[in-house]
Each structure stands twice: as C-alpha cells, then as structure tokens.
Design goal:
Rossmann fold, alpha/beta, Zinc Finger, Delta Prime, domain 3, 4 domains, flat, 7 strands, Helicase, Ruva Protein, domain 3
C-alpha cells in the first residue's frame, strides 16, 4: 500500500522534530513534561504541517499510553462513547490518550461529552486545531487544558526536512542527486512553513524522474512547478482570512503602502476579490473619510472596474485604490460621529423632533399649523441659528472636525459664518 513520504518520515523522537524550538527546545516546558512521562490535557494550536500530530504520537509513545485518534470533521459523540466503553476492559495501565484532530469542528455538545472523562483522568486529551482555540473551543474544555502554539516552520528548518527527504528518495531510487542553485531554497521558502508540503514537493520531483536514469538534477523550474501557490495558507472561513483582512485595513490606516499592497496581493493570489474589495471600500469611509472625501467615489470606481475586469487585470485598479488610501490623509471623524449618535439612539435618547423640523401638518379643520421653521436660504450665508436636535439632546456634540486640511478648512468656514471664530 502506498505510504506518503511525509508520513514515512514522520519524526519518532523530539530530537527529530524540525522547528518549534520555542516550545520543544531544550529546557522548555512542553519538552520537560514529555520527557517526564506525565502529560496533562493539551491543546495544540497552529497551521497544518507544523508537527501537532507528530508530537502527539511522540507523547503517546513517551508516556506508554494507549493512543486513540479521532478527527472531529468525521467523528461523532458515538465514537467517544465507544472509547469510553472500552476503558474498564482495556489493558492500559498507564491510561488512555485521545488525540482529537480539528477539535473546532465539534459543536458544544460534542465537546462537552469529553468533560467528565478528562476531568477524572480516565482520558488524557490532546486536541489540535488550526483555528484560534480561544474562539472555537468552549471554555469548559479550555479551563482543563494547557494550550501550546505551533508556529510555521522556518525555511532553515524546512531545508533540513528537505535534505532528509532527498537522501531517503535517492537511496530508494538509486539516483545521484544534484540541485540547481536556489532550487531547494525555493521549496523551503514556498512551502509556507508547512513541512508536509515541502516533503510532498520532493516526492513529486522523484516520482517525475525518468525510468532508467541514474542521476536527477532538481531544477529551479521544476521546483517552482511542484510548489505553485503552495506558500499560501487560505481558508475563507478561517482565522487567517480574517487576520489578512485586518492586516490590510490596519496597514492602510497606518499609512504604510508597502504593507497594504502586500496584503492585497495575498487576496489577489487566491482570487478572493469580494473580500478585499469590501474592506477597501470600508477603509475609504472609515479611515480616510472627510480628510479626502473624493477617495470614496474614486475607490468605488476602482472596485467596480476590478469586479468587471476580473483577474488578472483587476489587480491594477485595486493596487491604485490601496496605494491611494494608504498615502491619503486620514480622518475617522465621521466614524466616531455616527457611533456616538448610535449609542444615544440605542440608549433611548431620542425625544420628540423639534416642531419646526416636522413635516407640515394640518389640524382637523384643514388649516395649516404654524411650524416656526427658519429657511436657511433666506438668510445671509445660507445659515440661521435654530435648534435641530430634540430637547433631550440639544447640546449634544457628535462630530469633531479632524486635524486635516479639508476638515479644518470647513471648520474655519463655518466658524466665521456662525460667529464662532
């Protein structure tokens, strides 16, 4: 039966694990726990291909515990009950270790079915997730577990795994292997911190070797061919998606065009135009706003053009929009004003609309009632002082002019006309 090279080369000891020095290095807490043979309930959090399953296997071996594996994407509460039913008859003197992969796919009821058994120690839980556990795992489970974060593997660590994979495959295929400059470095970098991807790329290169050859040159072009877009980690519903959206908007807000264009490129590379277009439009209103009001229609035009063009041409108007926003003056005065007004409305601070602002009414006899409304265009500078807010809010101030040229010009204009200069 075919066994993927990445699974065949899976480390069996902590010394064989590549990367994760922050949690598995000499003297680190997780390493000391594993070496002691006494491991509590754990949650491993991090991207795919960073060693979560591998370390769980090593823990089961080191602690001499009977290992059960479930994947929450396909498992059910019944599977957990089946494991529990075996606990009394199972010959497992050191206890049972349950490795539950993708625990975020379990709903609250399914996660709660584990509580009693991890509470009394009959089962030691090691759960892994690619999503932020503080968002996706319920507090009752979190309070009984220690969370360790697995980081993406560095290119240097990935290179060690690539060398091992090449050595293994070269012996298997009896090939003398050489590599063009930059080819192995490209694989190490393009795997995006996922060792599994890096090893899969090496395996693909050997499988593609011509039968009967005694040498194999790993060319840069071939390395690129087996790593197309592999560095991108993207899930439209996952944390990385929302982290990237947040980074795009915060880079625009922070007036860093280089960072902003980088995060835009991530969305374009995976073809997610709607998500980045929505965020760019929002930023035009929230972060640039009244400091450069024309940015809003300009960005809207760029977004419309991008959606009409599609990729790859869509990158052009969107790049223009992002750089325009990142380099534009900034103001969130409109954002602050509407949120302050909404807070009062939601708190019930509304009151009656002033009589002079109400629609023209007629009484029961059909005669029009006097409103007292002062028509601003009948007065100098098209302005006259009158109350517009309800009495309960007549002194409320929601909008404060931003410290930018456009809004300060408007402020001076109205200060002069209202006699407040």
């Amino acid at each position: 039966m075919y066994q993927p090279l990445a699974d065949e080369l899976r480390p069996r000891t902590l010394d064989e694990v590549y990367g994760q020095e922050e949690i598995l290095g000499e003297g680190k807490v997780l390493r000391r726990m594993i070496e002691s043979g006494r491991v509590p309930n754990l949650i491993f959090y991090g991207p795919s291909g960073t060693g979560k399953t591998t370390v769980a296997n090593i823990i089961a071996d080191a602690t001499k515990r009977t290992l059960f594996k479930l994947n929450a994407t396909t498992a059910s509460t019944a599977d957990i009950r089946d494991i529990v039913a075996q606990l009394d008859t199972l010959l497992a003197p050191n206890g049972v270790l349950l490795y539950l992969d993708e625990i975020q796919s379990f709903n609250k009821r399914q996660q709660q079915s584990l509580l009693e058994h991890i509470e009394n120690g009959k089962i030691t839980l090691i759960a892994s997730t690619t999503e932020n556990p503080y968002f996706y795992i319920f507090n009752a489970i979190l309070s009984r577990c220690t969370v360790f974060e697995f980081k993406p593997i560095t290119p240097a660590a990935a290179k060690l795994a690539i060398d091992r994979a090449i050595d293994t495959m070269a012996k298997r295929y009896a090939l003398s292997v050489s590599a063009q400059d930059g080819a192995l470095a490209h694989i190490a970098t393009s795997c995006g911190g996922d060792i599994r991807k890096a090893i899969n790329a090496v395996e693909a290169l050997f499988i593609a070797a011509r039968p009967g050859d005694t040498t194999l040159e790993i060319r840069l072009d071939d390395a690129r061919a087996v790593t197309q877009r592999s560095a991108m980690r993207y899930d439209r519903e996952g944390d990385n998606h929302f982290d990237c959206l947040s980074a795009l908007m915060k880079s625009i807000r922070g007036s860093d065009p280089d960072a902003a264009i980088h995060y835009l490129a991530r969305f374009l590379e995976v073809g997610d135009l709607p998500a980045c277009c929505r965020r760019i439009l929002c930023s035009a209103c929230e972060d640039i706003g009244l400091a450069y009001p024309q940015a809003i229609p300009i960005v809207k035009a760029c977004v419309d053009a991008a959606l009409q063009l599609g990729m790859p041409e869509a990158r052009l108007p969107l790049a223009d929009a992002v750089i325009l926003l990142a380099t534009a003056p900034k103001s969130n005065s409109g954002y602050l004003a509407i949120d302050a007004a909404l807070a009062d409305v939601r708190a019930g601070k509304t009151g009656n609309i002033p009589r002079e602002l109400q629609n023209v009414h007629a009484d029961s006899e059909g005669a029009q009632r006097e409103q007292g409304y002062l028509y601003p265009h009948d007065y100098p500078n098209h302005w006259v002082k009158q109350q517009y807010l309800p009495d309960i809010l007549k002194n409320a101030r929601y909008y404060a002019y931003g410290e930018n040229k456009t809004e300060q010009t408007a402020k001076r204009y109205w200060d002069e006309r209202k006699g407040e200069a």
